Amino acid sequence: MKAPISWLQDFVKIDIPAEALADKLVHSGFEVEDIIRESDNIRNVVTGRVIATERHPNSDHLWICQVNVKTATLQIVTGAQNVKVNDIVPVALDGAQLPDGKRIYNGELRGVKSLGMLCGGSELGLTDDDYEGASVDGIMIMRPDTKVGVDINEVLGRTDVILDVSVTANRPDCNSILGIAREIGAVLHKPVKMPVTSYTATPERIFNMLDVQVEDGDLCPRYMAKAVKNIKITQSPKIMQDRLRAVGIKPINNIVDITNYILIELGQPMHAFDYEKIAGKRLVVRRATEGETITTLDNTSHALESDMLVIADAEKPLAVAGIMGGLDSGISDNTNTIIFESAKFARDNIRRTSRKLNLKSDSSARFEKGIDFLSQAIAIDRALTLIQINGWGTIVSGTIDTNMNAVKPRTITVPYKKINSVLGIKVPTDKMVSILNSLQIKTVVKGKKLECNIPAFREDIEGVNDLAEEIIRLYGYNKIKSTLFADARQTMGGREVNRSREDLLKRILTAKGADEIITYSFISPKTFDLLRLDKNDELRRAVPIMNPLGEDVSIMRTTLVGSMLSIIGGNYSKNNKEGVFFETSKVFRPKTLPLTDFPVETETLSVGMYGGDCDFYSLKGLLDSVFQAFKIDKTEYRRVKINYLHEGRSAEIFVEGESVGYLGEVYPDVSEAYGIDARVYIAEINLEKLFSFAKDHREFKALPKYPAISRDLALLVKDGVSSDQVVAVIRKVTNRKLLESVEIFDVYKGQGVPKGNTSIALTVVFRAPDRTLTDDEVQAEIDHALKSMKRKYRVKLRV
């Protein structure tokens, strides 16, 4: 934010050097990036009057001029052909510095002394926009009433000192001259004057001239309009032009300059419409219709979308709300009546529209940072005051205000001891009150509390911490003493247990050839359709984002599967025909919708693989390696039905009877939706549950003293009965003290196996801790297991 000190002086008295002022602002929390002195650009150039000219004796194109610069008459040689006696011209004296860095010194031209140089506009970095006649080919001839011997910077109005202040995102109220002036008033302990907003209006009422409708109050919480008749289009006063140039804005005409002047002075963007160009004498603040177009003031045509806000008349859009006006409704030399607009627009909508249209302006920048509810009325009254002071038009009485009750007073009451507790030091109560009042936060002491009335322009102040920050930045951060914590104890550093386990998990997966991916936690609702989820599926209950950048990132994800498939699809489209990926991130499940509490955040692992010779068992083997690393032995895989997984090639994973996740082959239609023409295998594991079963060490077991007895069984199992179910029966019915292990070593369907059956071959190992088992004991256990399997699943021993 560039703030000329002369402009700041309109609101607060500044009686210290710019460097001292910048230092005070820095100590109060504002970074002053630069102190710009306009006069540093051109040095030692003054105005002079040409009192005589003669031809150079040794040249047919040079002239010898005698120039009066008040303190002396200088002889200067020039090649310009437009210089005449009595012309007032810029004179670069000996040692002068020009904007391009060039230095001018006394010298000789073809044997004749030249004590300086006459300057053209281009040599001073000027155009006709800066000074009339500056663009002429030759020496810049100045107005006849220009004083002689005056520094050229004074003539050009470039004597100001400008503070370039970096305004943080939480202080949009300081994106204006008035906002910076308020801060200066606080640090200098000086009163701050408000801008003059006093004018008289004719009896005619604007309500008889114009109708205003706001169709979307969320995107336009407040819209104000005032009318001015008998407009005179002319140049702005020199002081207004100089100030606008000082902050980098080109003066155009008095009406446009007023809106830009208010923008910088008060931080409130405004717009002026030509009343005669408003069809139906009606302004409508609405969303654009799909396919609607507008040509903006920069002569660029834009196709509008339905989420963009426009200011329209009865027929067409007149402006892209908060960003730029339309070419057809702009002010021209023939304008007689104008409508001033002063409004508050939703910052997120302005930001999205600006990006989509690639259309930025000073107005859109202000709206994106935030505008308070008070600025609209102050700004529009200030604009009318400037109109009347300069005699540029007749003000029509009445104000159209769609939400005049928008400003609601806010009061925060806090114990002053709480503020001291936050700061860690004791600030005198009267000092707290004085500081807050200097910031226009009207504060009184009531008992042991401070009652603070928060002004509308301080939307960033919400509670005790904000008030404490305001107090300490003016009281002085240097008054905070460095102390140890009251209960300071040395502790061993280290990582949280589950974080260390997650690091181990990543090392294991990386060692197995998997690549880690990181994706956004925000996804598109369309993800659920691609995954073929039912309409009432719990995964569809996602937390919506209030101000999303677009539909693709409009909800918080409830599963990592969509993100994993998107990454695999992207790799597949780039001709990477195989890959193994994993991601550890959170999924978000709301307790209720709409939200009344924070959603449940669950740390989750997603693994995906495709291509090569990978299959269901490749992914299962990878997960088994993880379980083994965390010393998790009691895992079980059960058949599961998940919409986006192949029903016959998917399983739910249980540890000690509790579900921790699932794995399986992605259904072909889902893979195809993500552009993948290959088999894809996905797993998703709840890491919080998984880590709850993890062990940091195994119990020691002595080597067995007695031999084991093993039996190989070939079983005929009906289709639909899983091998895990068979193993579970064996583990349940046999003597647990004798059963050592059950391992499947073959699953077969084909010749020799009856239709509708599967052959499962497994090895059962028995061992007693205190003796050698007999064959009869083992056979009894086997017979008991076979009977139980036959009774429960009609399992037969294959002969």
Describe the structure.
With 799 residues, this protein is an alpha+beta fold. It has 6 domains: 2-39 and 160-188, Phenylalanyl-tRNA Synthetase, Chain B, domain 1 (2-Layer Sandwich); 42-156, Beta Barrel (OB fold (Dihydrolipoamide Acetyltransferase, E2P)); 202-401, Phenylalanyl-tRNA Synthetase, Chain B, domain 3 (3-Layer(bba) Sandwich); 410-474, Phenylalanyl-tRNA Synthetase, Chain B, domain 1; 497-692, Bira Bifunctional Protein, Domain 2 (BirA Bifunctional Protein, domain 2); 709-797, Alpha-Beta Plaits (2-Layer Sandwich). Helices cover 26% and strands 28% of the residues. It contains 20 helices and 40 strands. The strands form 10 sheets. A 7-stranded mixed β-sheet has the order 28-31-32-36-35-34-33, sandwiched between helices. Strand 20 and strand 21 form a beta hairpin. Helix 5 (238-246) packs across helix 6. The protein starts with a strand and ends with a strand. The mean pLDDT is 92.
